[in-house]
Specification:
Blueprint (H helix, E strand, L loop, with lengths): L1 H5 L1 H24 L7 H24 L12 H24 L5 H28 L9 H6 L1 E6 L3 H12 L5 E7 L9 E2 L2 E5 L4 H7 L4 E4 L6 H12 L4 E4 L3 H6 L3 H4 L1 E2 L15 H8 L3 E5 L4 H11 L5 E6 L2 H14 L5 E5 L5 H11 L3 E4 L6 H6 L1 H21 L4 E7 L8 H17 L5 E7 L1 E3 L5 H10 L4 E3 L5 E2 L1 E3 H14 L5 E4 L5 E2 H11 L10 E3 L19 E2 L5 E4 L6 H17 L5 H11 L9
Parallel strand pairs: 1-2, 1-5, 2-4, 5-6, 8-9, 8-11, 9-10, 11-12, 12-13, 13-18, 14-17, 15-20
Antiparallel strand pairs: 3-4, 6-7, 16-19, 18-22, 21-22
């Protein structure tokens, strides 16, 4: 095989020369009744054949046909062969005019040219089929048996690319049994030799009949609703499912299979893309100094990415954890080389350091995302939640006022609604601080409240994936526990939109859609991994953790006012005044003097006085 590769071009040239000789010989035989074959005629034809060999080989070389890799040739390459042969025929015709021979020989050249072009293309197509696995001599039946049966969903441009790669690079690993497409007019037709077997409703039946092990979802242009419905059908099959995010990813990554990703829970949310009023957001951010606290976290870093799209004059990112801060700084500098980014290591607990930062940069907008958010950990260390969430927020709120920021936006949580844990209680108090401060400051304060964010730090999804990869069990705290979910980009987009509405101390509440059962989510992730819940991977119920609720709420009583955006609601400003808030903070500050987490019950008792809606489970 290596010897063949070494002399590949020579072999192809020899075959082409044989074809040219045979084509002219055949043409002479076909036209022999029209003229007398004698010695003079044979000399003329010998000269013609030699001229043809030189001309055709020269043209095939000039058009670089011998530079093609045969197994990857396509229609465009074959068109070049036609052009090269046509050019050769024209040149030979010109030679015959310059050096006149019998007129009948022109017919011989024409017939020979047709035979040459058909023969050259035909044998190359046959070679391509052999090399690409149509007749793979090296592949024995044992290899055939170990290949995974694959069903591909989609019969568009992306699928053509997928099929081409599977037939070449992955032919020893995967065997495509067929395609699925919802266009009934395509059913029973074929793409690249692979039959379209049916529509989405036929997926379970086809998978069962063909022992399908892997389903490749290869539709890039599809609504979220349809994607969700098709994936739910795939889930019934027990096959592993992988998704191609988009056709452009095929270009970015040389290894096609690296583009396919596992099914994510967001694929099953069925949300349509959120539409924003980009003009309002752009006017608010463009050419302004924007400051983001907690900018290295999952929400904070996505805020930075989306803010950079609107070209602020300077983006100031504050975070105490330098590794995350460094990562987002480098990412922004790479993706937005002209953007002025200032990354600062600092704690929101340090008012003096915050004063220095605000005095230097005088931000126009402040997004406060820095917070401790992990419920069980804050139950264990409640004073840390108070120091970071409550007093850290109070520090940033005061800096925004003292240095005349235009707007301050607090990133809040659904756990602030009727909280049953310390973390939620501290975030509710932060909302109260923001609403009270708005009444006495020229700065416009507001909070944005949303639920769990898929992919954020502390999200349950990465934990489930690790547990599945380790063979289980997958741990769920309660079979009936539900949560609202939103993707990080969705949540941050709505935060920016809400910012353009903020003016009167509102708490903006994001529409998170329907609550999702965590137990069902765990089952779905196991199924999409090609495994059976409670057979291959056990789901273990561990019991609710400290401070954890079965159901989260997004709105308190009476909080349902709509905004111009269908996904954003307003919780009207509370009547709390700044002196009342500061009185509450004084109570909490007495706890900090002891600076110990040992008196947890005392800490919770004071928090219940400060935040009346805070009640532990069972109260």
């Amino acid at each position: 095989m290596n010897t063949i590769r070494k002399y590949r071009n020579l072999i192809l040239r020899v075959i082409d020369i044989v074809i040219i000789i045979m084509s002219y010989s055949l043409a002479i035989l076909m036209l022999s009744p029209l003229f007398t074959i004698n010695k003079e005629f044979l000399i003329q034809e010998a000269i013609t054949i030699v001229s043809a060999i030189i001309t055709y080989e020269a043209m095939l070389g000039i058009f670089k046909t011998y530079k093609n890799i045969t197994r990857y040739e396509n229609g465009n390459d074959y068109l070049v062969y036609v052009i090269a042969c046509l050019t050769s025929y024209i040149l030979l015709s010109i030679l015959k005019i310059i050096f006149p021979l019998d007129i009948l020989e022109q017919r011989i050249s024409l017939i020979a040219a047709l035979i040459i072009v058909v023969s050259i293309i035909s044998y190359r197509v046959i070679l391509r089929i052999i090399l690409n696995g149509g007749y793979i001599f090296k592949q024995n039946s044992e290899k055939e048996d170990v290949r995974k049966n694959v069903l591909i969903i989609g019969a568009g441009e992306a699928t053509k690319i997928v099929l081409g790669t599977l037939k070449t690079t992955f032919r020893d690993i995967y065997k495509v049994v067929g395609l699925i497409d919802d266009n009934t007019n395509k059913v029973n037709y074929a793409i690249s030799g692979y039959k379209i077997l049916g529509t989405r409703t036929d997926i379970p039946k086809i998978c069962k009949e063909n022992n399908v092990e892997l389903i490749l979802f290869s539709i890039s242009n599809i609504s979220n609703k349809d994607r969700k419905e098709i994936l739910q059908i795939c889930q019934e099959t027990g096959c592993k499912v992988r998704i191609l995010p988009g056709t452009k990813d095929l270009i970015k990554n040389k290894n096609l299979m690296d583009n396919f990703r596992d099914v994510e829970i967001e694929d099953l949310l069925g949300r349509e893309p959120i539409k924003l009023d980009n003009k309002d957001i752009k006017d608010l951010i463009k050419d302004k100094v924007i400051l983001v606290t907690g900018g290295g976290g999952s929400i904070g870093s996505e805020l930075c990415r989306q803010i950079a799209n609107y070209h602020p004059s300077k983006l100031v990112i504050v975070d105490i954890y330098e590794n995350n801060l460094y990562d987002i700084e480098q990412e922004l500098k790479y993706n937005y080389p002209k953007q002025d980014v200032e990354a600062i290591v600092a704690s929101v607990r340090d008012k003096k350091r915050l004063d220095e930062i605000f005095a230097e940069f005088k931000p126009y907008l402040v997004f406060h995302a820095a917070a401790h958010k992990h419920v069980p950990l804050m139950e264990t260390s409640p004073l840390e939640a108070i120091k970071n969430n409550v007093f850290g927020t109070y520090n940033v709120v005061n800096c925004a006022d003292e240095f005349n920021a235009k707007k301050f936006i607090l990133i809040s949580t659904d756990k602030a609604v009727n909280p049953t844990n310390i973390m939620g209680a501290t975030k509710r108090l932060c909302e109260m601080i923001v609403q009270a401060k708005n009444k006495v400051s020229n700065t416009e304060y507001a909070a944005v409240r949303f639920g769990n964010v898929l992919g954020s730090n502390g999200s349950v999804i990465p934990l489930f994936k690790k547990q599945i990869a380790n063979g289980g069990p997958v741990t769920v705290t309660h079979k009936e526990i539900t949560r609202y979910f939103m993707t990080i980009p969705e949540a941050v987009s709505l935060v920016l939109q809400a910012t353009s509405y903020a003016k009167d101390g509102e708490v903006f509440v994001l529409d998170m859609g329907k609550a999702v059962k965590i137990y069902d989510m765990a089952k779905n992730l196991i199924k999409f991994s090609g495994l059976e819940p409670n057979v291959d991977i056990k789901i273990k119920i561990t019991g609710l953790r400290p401070g954890e609720k079965l159901y989260e709420e997004l709105l308190m009583s009476g909080e349902n006012k709509k905004t111009r955006h269908e996904k954003i609601f307003i919780a009207p400003p509370s009547d709390i005044k700044i002196n009342q808030v500061e009185s509450k903070l004084k109570k909490l500050s007495t706890l900090l003097k002891n600076d110990t987490n040992e008196q947890k019950e005392e800490i919770k008792k004071v928090m219940k006085e400060v935040v009346p809606t805070y009640k532990e489970k069972g109260e």
